[in-house]
Amino acid sequence: MAKTPATPKPTAAELDLLQVLWPLGSATAKQVHQEIQKQRPDVTYATVLRLMQIMHTKGILIRDESERSHVYAPAQAQDSLQTNLLKDLIQKAFSGSAKALVLAALRSGISKKEREEIEKLLKEEDK
């Protein structure tokens, strides 16, 4: 029986880049660099380009090479990747217990507004 390849797990730097790329949908390295510089002016274009190339090699990004400037896009939708990372975290850090994860998150300090949003969501689920 053939094993399906595991979804690559992005590093912290790769997740930061994905947070910029997801809202854009697809973009050139230059466009991603311009967005990143708004928050982190110290990041160079060469660093962004190299990271995007590595992410493409790992299968985290897909690349359209039909234009002069390559256009990159996330290989996975944001919610899909977050769900996979969350499942992995639940297994590794909380012995498979989603309840333990939620309780830890609630204990770590949430705002009153966030608590109200959670309570509203839970009430809607009960209907």
Describe this structure in words.
It comes from Massilia polaris. Belongs to the BlaI transcriptional regulatory family. This is BlaI/MecI/CopY family transcriptional regulator. One of its GO terms (molecular function) is DNA binding. This protein is mainly alpha-helical. It folds into two domains: 12-74, Orthogonal Bundle (Arc Repressor Mutant, subunit A); 78-126, no CATH class. It is 62% helix and 6% strand. The protein contains six helices and two strands; from the N terminus they run H-H-H-E-E-H-H-H. Helix 2 crosses helix 3 (45-58).
Structural class comes to mainly alpha
Q: Give the number of domains.
A: 2
Uncertain regions: pLDDT < 50 for 5+ in a row? none
**Proportion of beta-strand residues:** 5-15%
Amino-to-carboxy terminus distance: 43 Å
Helix/strand order, N-terminal first: HHHEEHHH
User: Which fold name corresponds to the CATH topology of the largest domain?
Assistant: Arc Repressor Mutant, subunit A
The DSSP helix count reads 6
Radius of gyration equals: 18 Å
Report mean pLDDT, rounded to a whole number: 88
Summarize the amount of helix as a percent range: 55-70%
CATH class of the largest domain: Mainly Alpha
Q: What's the CATH superfamily of the largest domain, by name? A: Winged helix-like DNA-binding domain superfamily/Winged helix DNA-binding domain
Biggest sheet, strands in spatial order?
Answer: 1-2
Number of strands: 2
CATH architecture of the largest domain: Orthogonal Bundle
Shape category: elongated
Q: Describe the sheet with the most strands.
A: 2 strands, antiparallel
Keywords: DNA-binding, Transcription, Transcription regulation
InterPro entries: BlaI_family, WH-like_DNA-bd_sf, WH_DNA-bd_sf
GO molecular function, one term: DNA binding
Protein name: BlaI/MecI/CopY family transcriptional regulator
